[in-house]
From TrEMBL:
Residues 58-163 form the Sporulation stage II protein D amidase enhancer LytB N-terminal domain. One of its GO terms (biological process) is sporulation resulting in formation of a cellular spore. This is Stage II sporulation protein D. NCBIfam families: SpoIID_LytB (TIGR02669), spore_II_D (TIGR02870). InterPro entries: Bact_Sporulation_Assoc, SpoIID/LytB, SpoIID/LytB_N, Spore_II_D_firmicutes. It holds the Pfam family SpoIID. One of its GO terms (cellular component) is outer membrane-bounded periplasmic space. It comes from Brevibacillus thermoruber. Transmembrane segments: none annotated.
């Protein structure tokens, strides 16, 4: 028994260190080492690629600015991912951001933006910071941070993610609860390449776990329910009806009403639909794991994979199942 305990205490830390690497090695597709993504994707020379411009609605100025595609991608990556992240994670983010806007341009559906624009500069579409905004935000750190962002964008120039020849819905989010989510279980729409996968690296994120406190009255008001005091003190004041593949709350019953995990999260302004509840006196303690909707690429997961030695191609093919890498010129034919 003593020998077993010694082996266990020595082996457990080693297992915890090796497990994430084993997972990604098992499920990641083969790739060409650390080669630039632009070199492994079907890639049209820049001189042959059509000149693509993006019309961005600047929310604060209430104006439309027209910028070259790759300039726009630099602004999105700068706004959406910390410049300190690993280079391969930044490249993965650049491809996801480029795919998002190329998909919009391909579909030509701009009825959700002001006239003359193609995309908003907020998280409703993709956050975007122009160079002046980045200078003001980063101050003396501008040169090295902007340099890393530009390097990632240039290394992936023109590359988009496709499924059966069409640009994918390249959703991404900050931090998972250890798993990404099936699209059908959050957005109620099945998407073949948006499937739940393990993402154990996210535990390193500062947003991995957070506890939010509400009064019972505030909870009741936000949800439109009444919680009977005798039920609450008995510990049966809510019930998790269903859990998702990604171990989030699928459905919850509380105060005589049933909510989807997404609806519950949005009504209470929670970081994630992976949550637990605890009642203490007149207050409700809500502990969430992860940050964001959980569908697609986890940014902290991407950074963890990059630290484990995976390149951008392996990262995007892990989080977006069954996709291909193509040049945007072949996608935007019209």
């Amino acid at each position: 028994m003593k020998r077993f305990l010694i082996v266990w205490f020595i082996g457990l830390p080693i297992l915890l260190v090796l497990m994430p690497a084993a997972l990604v090695s098992l499920f990641s597709p083969p790739s060409n080492g650390s080669a630039d993504v632009a070199a492994v994707a079907p890639h049209a020379p820049a001189s042959n690629r059509p000149s693509i411009e993006v019309k961005v609605y600047r929310t604060n100025k209430k104006t439309v600015e027209t910028v070259p595609l790759e300039t726009y991608i630099e602004g999105v990556v700068a706004a959406e991912m910390p410049a300190e992240f690993e280079m391969e994670a930044l490249k993965a983010q650049a491809m996801a951001a480029r795919t998002y806007i190329v998909r919009r341009l391909s579909e030509k559906k701009f009825d959700d933006v002001p006239a003359g624009a193609q995309v908003l500069d907020t998280v409703k579409h993709q956050a975007y910071l122009d160079e002046q905004q980045r200078r003001e935000l980063w101050k003396e750190q501008f040169d090295w941070k902007n340099g890393r962002i530009r390097q990632a964008v240039q290394a992936t120039a023109g590359v988009v993610l496709t499924y059966q020849g069409e640009p994918i819905d390249a959703t991404f989010f900050s931090t998972s609860n250890g798993f990404t989510e099936n699209a059908s279980e959050y957005f109620e729409k099945p998407v073949p390449y948006l499937k739940s996968v393990a993402s154990p690296w996210d535990i390193q994120s500062p947003s991995y776990e957070k506890t939010q406190v509400l009064t019972v009255a505030d909870l009741e008001q936000k949800l439109g329910v009444r919680i009977a005091q005798e039920t609450a003190t008995g510990g049966n004041w809510y019930r998790i009806v269903e859990r998702t593949t990604g171990n989030r709350v699928g459905k919850i019953s509380i105060g005589g009403k049933e909510f989807s995990g997404r609806e519950f999260r949005e009504r209470l302004g929670l970081n994630s639909s992976a949550f637990s509840l605890e009642l203490r006196g007149g207050q409700v303690y809500i502990t969430t794991k992860g940050y964001g909707h959980g569908v697609g690429m986890s940014q902290w997961g991407a950074n963890g994979m990059a630290k484990a030695g995976k390149n951008a191609e392996q990262i995007v093919k892990y989080f977006y199942q069954g996709i291909s890498l193509e040049d945007c010129g072949s996608v935007l034919k019209g």
